[in-house]
Amino acid sequence: MNSQAKLPLELEQTVFEYATESESAILSLSRVAHRVHTWLEPLLYTTLRLDTRTRVAAFFEHHANPSPSVASAHQLARHRDSAVAGFLRACPGIKGLSLIGDNVSARLLPVLRNLRVERLTINIGELFHTEASPRNDDTETDKEQEEKSEPEEESRLLSFAYPLFSSVTHLDINDDFDVEDPEPEELEWLTNLSTLPALTHLAFSSPPNPEIVGTVLRSCPDIRFLVIPFSAMEAQMASEYAKFVAEDAGSDGWLVVATYADYYADWEAGARGREDVWVRAEKFVAAKKRGEIEKDDYLLDRASIEGED
C-alpha cells in the first residue's frame, strides 16, 4: 500500500503555478510530468514581447495558432497585417496590448474593435488613418476578406465608441506630436478621451506641446495620472520639458514627466505584474501629496527600469 500522501490535482496545480516566477522556471517544472506541462505551458504565453522582426518571425514560425491564454502582448506590427490580425483573433481574451509599427492601420479595426483590452499602447492616428487602402494578399482567409468588405466609411471614423476602448484603463498614445504645435490636428480627438469610461492612466510616447497637456487634463477630469516618458538618454530634455510644462499645468498633481531605461522592458515588467512607469508615477504623486516633493516638481527621474525575469 502506498502511504505517500497526495495533494488534490487542483491544489497541486496551484502549487506549481505559484512556483513559476520566470520563463526558465516554467520550462524546468514542465518536465516533471505531463500534467504539469499541460498546466504550465499556457503561462509561457500570458505575456508576449514581439518587439523585433526576429522575434515576430520566430513566434509565427513555431506558433501558427497562438494560445487563447495570451493575456498581454507587445507586438511590433511589421509583419503583414493579415498575420497581425490572425494573431489577435486567436487571442480574444487579451487584456494588455502594445501594438506599434508601420502596419498599424484601419485594416486592423475589424479585429481590434471588439477586444476588451485594459492596457493599450497604439498609434490612434494611424489606426483611424483616412488614407488606408486595402492591399491585395492572396493568402488572406475568407474571414479577412469579409472584414475588409465592410463599409469603408465605418473603418475610417475616429470613434472611441468601439468596445475596444470601453475597458481601457491605461492608454499610451504612440502618435508623434510636434512639441512646438499647440493646435495639432489630433486636438479634437484628444479632448474626446474624456468619453472613455474606464480611463484613469494616460501617457504620450511623444511629448506634446504643454498647452495640449493642459487641455487634456482639463477636459478629462477622471484621469488620475498623465505620464510623459523620456528615454534615460534624454534626461536633460525631460528636465527641460518638465519645467516647460509646469507653466501650463499649474498645480495639477496628476502630471508626471518620467524617464525610462528600456521602454519595452518597462512594458513587460508591468504586464507581468511588476513595477513599471505607472506604478512609479503613482508613488511619485503620492509623495507629492505627502509634501515630500515640491508641488511644482513634475520630473520623476529615478526610473531605472531594466526588466527582470
Task: Give me the secondary-structure topology.
Layout: H1 9-18, H2 23-29, H3 34-40, E1 47-50, H4 53-62, E2 72-76, H5 81-89, E3 96-100, H6 109-112, E4 119-122, H7 124-127, H8 142-148, H9 152-156, H10 163-166, E5 170-173, H11 187-191, E6 201-204, H12 210-219, E7 225-231, H13 235-249, E8 255-260, H14 263-271, H15 277-289, E9 299-300
Parallel strand pairs: 1-2, 2-3, 3-4, 4-5, 5-6, 6-7, 7-8, 8-9
The low-confidence runs, each spanning 5 or more residues with pLDDT under 50, are 130-140, 144-156, 303-309
Neighbour order of strands in the largest sheet = 1-2-3-4-5-6-7-8-9
Strand-residue fraction? Answer: 5-15%
Output the helix-strand order: HHHEHEHEHEHHHHEHEHEHEHHE
Structural class: alpha/beta
| Helicity range | 25-40%
Rounded to the nearest angstrom, the distance between the terminal CA atoms is 43 Å
The total count of helices amounts to: 15
Q: Tell me the domain tally.
A: 2
Question: What general outline do the C-alpha atoms trace?
Answer: globular
Largest sheet: 9 strands, parallel
Mean pLDDT: 74
Question: Radius of gyration, rounded?
Answer: 22 Å
Strand segment count = 9
Short description:
It is built from 15 helices and nine strands. The protein has helices spanning 9-18, 23-29, 34-40, 53-62, 81-89, 109-112, 124-127, 142-148, 152-156, 163-166, 187-191, 210-219, 235-249, 263-271, 277-289, and strands spanning 47-50, 72-76, 96-100, 119-122, 170-173, 201-204, 225-231, 255-260, 299-300.
